[in-house]
Amino acid sequence: MKAIVISRLGGPEVLEVRDMPGPTPAAGEELVAVQAGGLNFADVMTAQGGYPGAPKPPLIAGREFCGIRQSDGKLVMGYAQWAAFAERIAARSQLLWPVPDSWTAEEGAAFPVNYFTAYLAYWKAGLTATKGEKAPRVLIHAVAGGVGTAAVQIGKLLGVEMFGTSSSEEKLTRVKALGLQHGINYKQLDYEEAIKDLTHGEGVDAVFEMLGGEHTNKSVRCLRDFGRVIVYGSATGKKSELDTRLLYAKGASVHGLWLTYLSANRELMNASWQQLSTWAQQGHLHPVIGHVLPMEQAAEAYGLLAEGKNFGKVVLQITPSTRT
């Protein structure tokens, strides 16, 4: 089978399309003929050697996919730790989900990582249950990305007042069409100061933080009393800096969110899927796809994500899309 292989550690140039042996399903796994793969920043980090637990190269790239399950011919979307960007994958049965009838394989490939991460961020922030009359406030970093656009769609359903950072007015305008109320161009404004101005000094209830470095402290300073920062990445490539003294005065807290770990919690994933699938079937959730590229252009796709040039999801076509 053909697969996108990380040949060695480095930038997008280390990706190669190679002929590789096909997988053999183990107990609890099913064979899926992959049609499309969703690209995530974790894939960029894996190629660079910065993702925990990834095997040494050469390895087949990709952690999110959509294709035909061989046992029943149904279109399913799934999540794995690697080996998703190949014509076939042996995937864990419990991490395969049916694709809504009206969706394409590309849309299915753009769903699992972003929407589970976004929903679980709201869960970690304590915002998935109905609140009182006053809408909770959330600051979403990289709001025009895959997780960001998913978080905006979910936040709209939860009745959240959302503030989002991005690098351009064009991106912010497009995300506002999804339901974002307050856009902050971080190239023009310091988002910490912007949050103070927009909330009249009160701050937000939660920050979805995936930048790392100094931004963890800055995000804490954006909180109101008893607020929470949900950390789920480090796109800057820098370890999060956290001065715990900032937490004391506000009774604030910082929480980690790692889908790799949480995906092993069957009860939590099932409960999350129950809500997400209901919204999807009702037509409330629509994966935002900015680019679809053939697998031969994997390096270009990785480059778009690494350089922050994407809007929404970058999807790779593995084989021609069909569904039954």
Describe the structure.
The chain contains eleven helices and 16 strands. It has 324 residues and is an alpha/beta fold. The strands form three sheets. Strands 3, 5, 6, 7, 8, 15 and 16 form a seven-stranded mixed beta sheet that branches. It has a six-stranded parallel beta sheet with strand order 11-10-9-12-13-14, sandwiched between helices. Strand 9 (137-140), helix 4 and strand 10 (161-166) form a beta-alpha-beta unit. The longest helix has 16 residues, at 266-281. The radius of gyration is 19 Å and the shape is globular.
Topology diagram in text:
Layout lengths: L1 E5 L8 E5 L9 E11 L1 H8 L10 E2 L3 E6 L5 E5 L8 E5 L3 E3 L6 H5 L2 H13 L12 E4 L5 H13 L2 E6 L2 H8 L5 E4 L5 H8 L5 E6 L5 H7 L1 E9 L13 H6 L2 E4 L2 H4 L3 H16 L7 E6 L3 H9 L6 E5 L7
Parallel strand pairs: 9-10, 9-12, 10-11, 12-13, 13-14, 15-16
Antiparallel strand pairs: 1-2, 1-4, 3-5, 3-7, 3-16, 5-6, 6-8
Overall mean pLDDT stands at: 94
Strand fraction equals 25-35%
Shape: globular
Q: Over all CA atoms, what is the radius of gyration?
A: 19 Å
Based on DSSP secondary structure assignment, what is the total number of beta strands? 16
Q: Note the gap between the termini.
A: 22 Å
Number of helices: 11
Low-confidence stretches: none
State the gist of this model.
With 324 residues, the chain is an alpha/beta fold.
